[in-house]
Amino acid sequence: MAEVLIVEGGEAAGRLVSDHIVGLVQIRPDMVLGVATGSTPLPVYRELARRHSRGVDFSRAWAFALDEYVGLPEGHPQSYRAVIDREVTVPLGFDRSHVNVPDGGDGDIETTGERYEAALHAHGGVDLQLLGIGTTGHIGFNEPGSSFASLTRVKTLTEQTRADNARFFDSLEDVPIHCVTQGLGTILRARHLVLLAFGEAKATAVAAAVEGPVTASVPGSAIQLHPHVTVVVDGAAASRLEHADYYRWARDHKPAWQGL
Ligand code: F6R
Fold first, then answer.
1. pTM of the entire structure?
2. What element of type H or E holds 119?
3. pLDDT higher than 80, residue 1
């Protein structure tokens, strides 16, 4: 089962997860960090940027993004390559040549998934994968119905996800319809999954992913198949968890030697 940590809010989550990532990069400077985009991981990136400004070095680490929109013009500010550059590469001091984002350009789109899988494989896979969750239950952009064995490939976004992400664009029409996303099978290969969620709007998806049946209808429920998962949520995102009291109890009695 996943370890569920109910924290006060984004800042507390950012500190908790950053402590762990800093510990990893200090032991293994060339670690591979799996990065998500969207609003959810921002408190983690902000805290990691603060640690970097105090001397934590990410220049030898590698980053792999979960997904990318298909067909946005190169350099589009909402392309995930641009978002990762702004939120992760520059503020954390990653070497740009160490940061990988799936190629969503129209050119070789049929083989983009295979190329990304090959790059992941060549770097020995992801040590720690940060995940958000969509209101549809997606992780990465694996919308309901995604195979648990799926690898990086082109997917069609649901209308719900496009509406959710329209806030980053001028209008709903500007949100791409297609994306390239790591598959659920790809995500499950990462050595440690850290799923973050904040706010009431995520409560149903979090409860279904953590406590519901393992089903392709809730792609986030794939995390139940992984041996090392940490779910970090605030009280609002945890509000539909049936066993929230137990998770709080377990946290209060967490053995001192046990990290994340
Ligand atoms: C982003 C990603 C998505 C988001 C999810 C939540 O790379 O893969 O699964 O994590 O859509 O988005 P936010 O955090 O904006 O609520």
1. 0.98
2. helix 112-122
3. no
